[in-house]
Design brief:
With about 200 residues, the protein is mainly beta. Helix content is about 0%, strand content about 35%. Strand 7 and strand 8 form a beta hairpin.
């Protein structure tokens, strides 16, 4: 397979200098992206993370089927289970020796806070509810040390660290990200006083 765009294509067995090797958090080898890392900067710039406007999409939105298994990308411990209404929805954070992984837009939860998980363990199931946007998993990582005020919420692009055969390009790519229809994009919640960003 020819490498069309290395931002979206990765091959199994690739070695990363950071030593972080993540399994795909879905039970499949080929994944279609709803939004890739840094996509739609015009849309995301209207939202802040710890008071700082976002530079783009701070993770990967991976299309899923209703009730699909959401899997741990690496061995770790579940450190947070919560809900961000109107934004990332129900989510799980897992602590790892290299940082943390984040799984949002979840349906049924299959783990508890404090639980140790291994790579590939089921964490949750994808949502079953109908939304004005496609069902997806919002997947992101933070690598130690991270800065939550960097315009990305401290998140890093997970793409180079994933063991997958192929990530197909986002279905919503546009030349003019500002004019991308907001009803097609997953929502972000406006940051208000007292809101705790995950």
């Amino acid at each position: 397979m020819a490498a069309r765009n290395l931002r979206y294509i990765q091959f199994s067995g690739q070695t990363e200098p950071e030593g972080i090797h993540l399994a795909l958090p879905l039970d499949t080898e080929t994944v279609q992206l709803l939004q890739g890392w840094g996509d739609n900067p015009g849309y995301h710039a209207q939202f802040t993370y710890n008071g700082v406007p976002l530079k783009g999409h701070p993770g990967l939105d991976l299309l899923t089927s209703p009730g699909a298994s959401i899997l741990a990308a690496d061995r770790g411990r579940v450190i947070e289970i919560s809900h961000e209404p109107g934004g990332l929805g129900r989510y799980v954070k897992v602590d790892h020796h290299w940082g943390e992984s984040f799984y949002g837009q979840l349906g049924e939860l299959l783990v508890e806070t404090g639980q140790t998980v291994t790579r590939g363990d089921p964490l949750a199931r994808a949502e079953l509810l109908r939304r004005p946007f496609p069902l997806h998993l919002h997947f992101a990582i933070r690598i130690h040390p991270f800065n939550r005020f960097d315009g990305w919420g401290g998140f890093n692009d997970p793409t180079p660290f994933l063991y997958v055969v192929e990530l197909t390009p986002p279905i919503l790519e546009t030349e003019d990200a500002v004019s991308t229809p907001s009803f097609m994009l997953p929502p972000m919640v406006v940051e208000t006083k007292g809101l705790r960003r995950p």
